[in-house]
Structures are given as C-alpha cells and as structure tokens.
Design a protein that fits this description.
Layout: H1 3-23, H2 26-30, E1 36-39, H3 47-51, E2 64-67, H4 133-142, E3 168-174, E4 177-183, E5 189-194, H5 205-216
Antiparallel strand pairs: 1-2, 3-4, 4-5
C-alpha cells in the first residue's frame, strides 16, 4: 500500500469519525445510560496517594468520577454544544410560568351600626330583659371581633394603628343601659356596643320607656311614700 492509499484511508476514517461526532447531541451526552462511573480518578493524583487511601476508616469516601458520554463508541464532541454564560441561570426543570391569578382585595368587615328608633313601631311591643353585668362581661370575653387589627387611622399623618387583638373590654352604665367598649393597647376605640337602641339626641330607649311609664301611671318624681 503506497502513501496515497494510506492517506485516503486515513481521510475516510476521519470523515466517518467526524460524522459520528456530529451526530452527538446534548441529550445523548447527558443521558445516564451513556455515562461511565470511574472509581478512583487518578487525574492529577499520584499512585502513592491513591494507594494511601484508608478504606477501613469510617469517614473514608472513595474518589468517584462520572464521565458523561463515556459509554458512547464515538468520542463526544462538545464544540457544537450551546455555551452558557456565567450570568445565565441553569435549571434542571424548564421554567413554567404559573397562571396569573388575581387575588381579591382583603377588606375588613364593618361593624353594625347602633340601632336607632325612627318610629313608634321600633319601640312599642319590643321584648326586653334584665341583664347582669357579669354575664355581659363573660360574653364579651369569648366574643371575637371580625377585625385583624385596630381600624383607627390618624387624620393628620394618615398612619394606621397596628395593634392586634385581643382587645380590652370595658363595661359602663348609662341610665338603664350597659355600654361595652373594645379598645386597643394604645387606647383607640375599636367598637362600642349599647344594650339599648337610641332615640333622637342620644336618648336611650329604656330610659325613655321607664320615664314614660312612671308619668303615665299617675306617679311623678314629687310623690313620695
């Protein structure tokens, strides 16, 4: 075989090898089925250091090397693989954008307004009862207000109070009624509740009914026993 035939055969082998390397892609190289595990990688390590490893030590960890694409017949060519810049983030799982969900705006529920007597039907025939203050306090202690924080807002700075429940409950007497008031740690009134509805000018219904019954019964404050 002369030199020209040898050169032609070498070129053919190189072309076949180049064709095989061009077929290689990223998935084939990264496939675990095409990877090879080498125990005791001696690259950059002398034989004396490898033999000096104490395999009887409990903390001994043998050297291990995983060569991607090592089981492929043709050597993998990484020249055509995409280059990843250092600023890019590499993820094993492709990024999937979550569906856009618009969350509703959380609003604090409002407290019910104080009952008011607008007509005589709002007062006549309504049932009433005598309530002890200790029973009201027991009920107020177990009651959870429908708020996450104090609703007070400063009129000047527009800053909101950040006090959280539980709030302090106080009970005061006003005529024949009991007024319960919830206050935060700073002293802001969170809610005020009255045991009786109110008439015009803030008069309580129970006080009005009591005075009317005394007057209509023929008695007055001047009569005494």
């Amino acid at each position: 075989m002369d030199a020209s035939e040898v050169l032609e055969e070498s070129l053919q082998n190189m072309s076949i090898q180049d064709a095989e390397t061009q077929v290689m892609n990223e998935q084939e190289i990264n496939d675990l089925m095409n990877s090879v595990i080498d125990w005791g990688d001696s690259e950059g390590v002398s034989n004396e250091e490898i033999e000096a490893d104490d395999s009887e030590d409990e903390d001994y960890v043998p050297r291990i090397c995983i060569r991607l694409g090592g089981a492929l017949q043709a050597p993998p060519c990484i020249d055509n693989l995409p280059v990843i810049d250092a600023s890019e983030t590499v993820h094993d799982i492709p990024d999937v954008e979550p569906p856009s969900v618009t969350l509703p705006t959380l609003q604090q529920p409002g407290f019910p307004d104080t009952l008011e007597v607008m007509t005589e039907d709002d007062l006549i025939g309504k049932r009433a009862s005598i309530t002890y203050e200790d029973c009201l306090r027991q009920l107020a202690t177990l009651l959870v207000l429908p708020v996450q924080k104090c609703p007070y807002t400063c009129d000047v700075s527009k800053m909101e109070c950040q006090c959280r429940p539980p709030f302090e409950v106080s009970i005061t007497r006003r005529g024949t009624a009991s007024i319960m008031e919830w206050t935060c740690l700073v002293g802001h009134t969170v809610w005020r509740w009255s045991s009786q509805p109110t008439l015009r000018y803030g008069m309580l219904a129970g006080d009005f009914m009591l005075a009317s019954n005394i007057l209509l019964s023929g008695s007055n404050y001047a009569k005494r026993d």
